[in-house]
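Chapter review: from sequence to fold.
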Amino acid sequence: MSALRIAGVLSGTSLDGIDVAICTLETHGDGVRIRCERFATIPFPDALRARIVAAYPPAPAGALEISALHAAIGTAFGDAVTTVAGELALDAVASHGVTLAHDDAARETFQIGDPFRIRERTGVTVVSDFRSADTAAGGTGAPLVPFLDTLLFAEHAPCVALNLGGIANLTVLPDGIAFDSGPANLPIDTYVTLRTKNAQRYDADGKFAAAGTPNEALLHKLLTDPYFQRTPPKSTGREQYGAPYITRHRNALDALTLEDAAATLTALTARTVANAVTRHAAHATTVIASGGGTRNPTLMRMLATELPTHTLTTSATHNIDPDAKEAIAFAVLAHATLRNKPANLPRVTGAAGPRVLGSIAPVDLDALLKKLHT
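The token string follows.
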């Protein structure tokens, strides 16, 4: 079968920017050969980022503002894809958009970023809205990256594929268990932004946390969150570990130095990830990490300390850019959609069964499918 060049594009929970991975994908037996040709993160315009943050629950954003954001994000995504792709001709775009709301208990999720505006700027078919088919079938709609983890890392089992984005999620191989363990960068980013009055949006290189000491009393309190004891399937997001979470614990955090507060929140991520690995992947010997958290040496050092019997490495050792993995994942999911192949994992999400994911905004779909199957 012919290879397709698909641009995977998303903005994660931390809203660091718009991640674009230009990937070549080719069906190979039951799997897919994947090559990432280019990857870049395009910063959000400050004003647009501020509007997105202001629209997150429990903010009372109205329908007109959400509609305007849907259009503006679609435009920004389309422009980001064309910038990164440059002279490379694309066959399709896979857009995850921006998750504005996610409630795994209610089996509801909502991503925005108009795929037709992306189509207008790129001139190719756009596959989007990857979570809704799973939630409609009774699933949590997340995580979806385990579909890629299984393709990339099954041969290295027993292992854990760990993603440290705004939220931490892990895939246990060969078992196929996968779930969100809890927070990763999101509470750290949110608190640093608030404490520095927007002067810094994250703990760059983990320097604040490195200069501080975790407050054990507060850490113990944070660890009593019932989410950490829930059994999979489970997923979470900004509603649980973003601004509302920091607001609940703001007084206790503000009683500490910025450095100690950052160290405490960083230790929370390391401890909850390690507890999840120990509880659900006791047989695993290796943890393969990806996501923005891998660029935080303090977090990685804490995580290694919490997992002394595991080898902690990153996806870079397997030729996968840790920053690019999620964008690559959505390119792979779109490839499955175009092949009419289910790509949710019911054991992971709790869906009633396998489902083909995504909605398609087509451009000469017949020609695209003919190329795919030639």
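Two observations follow directly from the output. The mean pLDDT is 96. Residues 63-85 form the longest helix (23 residues).
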